[in-house]
Each structure stands twice: as C-alpha cells, then as structure tokens.
Design goal:
The protein has 320 residues and is an all-alpha fold. It is 70% helix and 0% strand. Helix 16 crosses helix 18. The longest helix has 15 residues, at 42-56. Keywords: Annexin, Calcium, Calcium/phospholipid-binding, Metal-binding, Repeat.
C-alpha cells in the first residue's frame, strides 16, 4: 500500500499559481512547495506541470531546479517527473555510475508494462535505446566496464517481457529447479541457463521454481549463489532473484544500508522513498520496523535535515 497522502478535488491551475507564488519574491517558499507537491499523485503532478506551462510558458521542472538545491532539489526533481521518465533518468544515471542495482530494480520489480514504458521514455529522452547504452558501457576504461556476462544478464532483464499472470507450470518448475542446481553446483556456473530462467520466467513461475529448489536441496538458491564478493555476476543474480521474489525485503535492505552506512546514502534513500511512495512503501516500512526495531520515519528524521527531511517524511505519510 502507498504511504502518499493524496489531497483530492484539487485544482491544477490553483496549484500552479500557488507554486508560481512560492518561487517568486526574495526567497523560495519550500514549505509551500512540499505542501502542494508532497500530496499529489502522478496524474495530478502531470496536470500541474501542464497548467503551469500554459499559464507561464515555463517548464515547472526547470523552475524548481533553479529555485531549490542539494538533496531536496534532486529528490523533488525526480518526484515531479512522470514515473516512466523518472525510470529513464534513474537508469541513465545508474549506467554512468556503473550501478547495476538500479537497472535490476527497474527490470525485475516493475510490471512488464512499466518496464516497457520506461524503455520507451528512455529512447524519447536520450535518443538511444537503454540496451545501446548498456552495451556501450563495456567499452572504454576496463576498470569501469561491466563484465560481458553481467552485461548479458542486464540486457536480458531489460528486454524481457514477462508474463504477468499467476498461473504456474509445476512440471517446468521442477525441471528448472534441477537445471539451476546443476548450473550452480561446485560454483561452476552455467551462466546462460541461469540467465535464461531468471530473465524470461514470470514472477509466479520463478517463485515456484525457487521454492522447489529449496524443498529439494534444503538451501535457498540465493545462498547457493554466494561466491566471491567481487563477482558482480553472482551478486547481480542474487539481487535479481530477490527483487522478483520479495521486493519489500530487498528494499528494506537498500534502506538499511543507505541509513546505516558512514554518511547517509541520500541517493538510495531518495530513490526508494520516491519510487515506492505511490505503491508499496507502507509494506516496506513494516519490513523495516520488523528488521530494525525502529520506524523508518524515525530513522529518516534522525539522518536527514531541513526541507529534504520534511519532504521525505511527507512522502512517508506524515501529514504535518
């Protein structure tokens, strides 16, 4: 369930006018911006952007970029974008930073339709396909390039169009559990078989296969995939499986690592809160509390400050 508290029956024109007022004068009224945009869903935000441009012949996103700064500006920028366009931006930044985690999140947690929309948005924004930019990342400085096997996995994940239903084939789950076990045995990974199964099967089918694997071998597949921490492929495969089978647990770990590391990882923290506030952030908050015995709201309030803190807490469901 979402944590975003949406104010209904609002006027996009009135919101646009209020945002214009908040950006004028001697100082920006950040509280007014949070009060408005922090309580509008994606459709409402899009209508506000349209109304603002019609009224003032100016892009609201660019105006906010010029008015705000720091972590708050980056968070607000990503929040106000259309979700598919936001995914495109996140993917592009991830490629530049060699952060395959974000590519896996977008590929494995999104629905097939959401992934397709993100790929289309990427092409419109950057005039290249997401696959092209992933492939280009293997060139140049070898220290920054992803391995060929990791690239194979990432391209397979972003180009897959999984079946989105709940039907499963028990016989296929049994046979592919055996295939995965044979591929992983003795750490001599048959990467092609693992990549094929992880990237093509529906979430329900893959869950059935993974459950069969655990029942047959008394160990989870993610534990069997543990290897050299420097092995990007095995780490990426584990991550993909976690994203597909238990995204809430995955996001809880991302948040825990972002908050507990020396110096908060604001980029990861913002990414989870912003992308999940309209979806399942309530369940992620519950998982966080269960794992850490402290509420996510409290942890965020302790590790952040100012307008950035106020904005994240608003998206987390804090009214005032």
């Amino acid at each position: 369930m979402a944590t975003l508290i949406v104010h209904e029956n609002t006027s996009p024109v009135e919101d646009a006018e209020a945002l214009r007022k908040a950006c004028q004068g001697w100082g920006t009224d950040e509280k007014a911006i949070i009060r408005i945009l922090g309580h509008r869903n994606a459709t409402q935000r899009q209508l506000i952007r349209q109304a603002y441009e019609e009224l003032y012949q100016e892009d609201l996103v660019k105006r906010l970029e010029s008015e705000l700064s720091g972590d708050f500006e980056r968070a607000m920028y990503r929040w106000i974008l259309d979700p598919a366009d936001r995914d495109a931006v996140l993917a592009n930044v991830a490629i530049k930073k060699s952060d395959y985690r974000v590519i896996i999140e977008i590929s494995c947690i999104h629905s097939p339709e959401e992934l397709l929309a993100a790929r289309r948005a990427y092409r419109i924004r950057y005039k290249r396909s997401l696959e092209e930019d992933l492939a280009a990342h293997t060139t140049g400085d070898i220290r920054k390039a992803w391995s060929w096997l990791l690239l194979q996995l990432l391209v397979a994940l972003v180009t897959a169009y999984r079946y989105g239903g709940d039907e499963i084939n028990a016989r296929l789950a049994n046979s592919e559990a055996d295939i995965l076990h044979d591929a992983i045995k003795d750490k001599a990974f048959n990467h092609e078989e693992i990549i094929r199964i992880v990237s093509t099967r529906s979430k329900a089918q893959l869950m059935a296969t993974i459950n069969r694997y655990k029942d047959d071998h008394d160990i989870s597949i993610t534990k069997n995939l543990l290897g050299d921490p420097a092995d990007e492929l095995s780490s990426a495969l584990r991550m993909a499986i976690r994203c597909i089978t238990d995204s809430e647990k995955y996001y809880e770990k991302v948040l825990r690592n972002a908050i507990n590391k020396a110096g908060t990882d604001e980029d990861a923290l913002s990414r989870v809160v912003i992308t999940r506030a309209e979806k399942d952030l309530k369940e992620i908050k519950e998982a966080y509390y269960k794992r850490n015995s402290v509420t996510l709201d409290h942890a965020v309030a302790k590790e952040t400050s100012g307008d950035y803190k106020a904005f994240l807490l608003t998206l987390l469901g804090k009214e005032n």
